[in-house]
Amino acid sequence: MGSELDDQDCRDFLGSIRVGDLYSGTATEVTQSRGVAVTLDVFPRRPLGMVGPLGLSWRRRATGAVQVGQRITGEVVAVDLDEGIAWLSMAAAEEPELWAFLSSLRPGELLSGTVAAIERFGVFVALDQGPAHPVFPGVGFITIPELSWRRFETASDIVQVGQRVSGEFLYFDTWNGEARLSVRATQPDPFQAFADSTMVGETLHGQVTKLVPFGAFVQVADGIEGLIHLQELTATPVGTPEEVVQVGDEVSAVVTGLDRERRRLSLSCRQAAPGLR
Length: 277
Hints:
With 277 residues, this protein is mainly beta. It folds into 3 domains: 2-94, CATH 2.40.50.140; 96-186, CATH 2.40.50.140; 198-268, CATH 2.40.50.140. The chain contains 4 helices and 15 strands. It has helices at residues 2-16, 90-94, 96-104, 190-196, and strands at residues 22-31, 35-40, 49-51, 71-80, 85-89, 110-119, 122-127, 140-143, 164-173, 178-182, 203-212, 215-221, 224-229, 250-259, 264-268. The N and C termini lie far apart (78 Å). 29% of the residues are buried. The model has no long low-confidence stretch (mean pLDDT 90).
């Protein structure tokens, strides 16, 4: 009975917590994979706070990890009622100006800035407004898929360091303290316009751009690529697409599927006339 009451007290307490609340407590357990368990001053019965690896103090990353018994102050960035945990960020508590700026942004808002750094996982943007980031080259960040609607090999194919960019604010990444942006959201989706003027059964002409084990990608319009599955390359079964086509080949293919939501175009050379050429 006592345990059930305690569990209910925990749920009630966690239910009263709001993102942005500031709490202090003591580190009771430190693990490399999960982070730091924290017994909060306002609820000393069990550790309900958790600081994940990305939520640790930016100031202490160069000087050492958190130790058991250390006093911690963190801002609530998420509450998991199912797991019974309030996720905290020490970094948020250290940078109130940054967190206040990011919290003030609204999805769909247009932000501008300068490309500060290009990495394989995305692009950092130094925003015109708001404070600088204490760790990263910029407060704004654009993941690779959000750079453009068209297919490209590297981020440098789309932007360069020093270039001015504008992007739609998607959300506040509380783990890294950055504004996630989308450049492609500010541009019309070419696939939707293409789908408006294209019908299943129509024959298209294009150039093979990439070969994969399960088929070949063909560019049929500017920024529009479709997939020809291996079994649709030819009427005769083949083991690899290289047996039929090479990158750069011009082909004719019939549209067999148009998926607007997933932006997928399915093609078939096997059904086309006169087929490969």
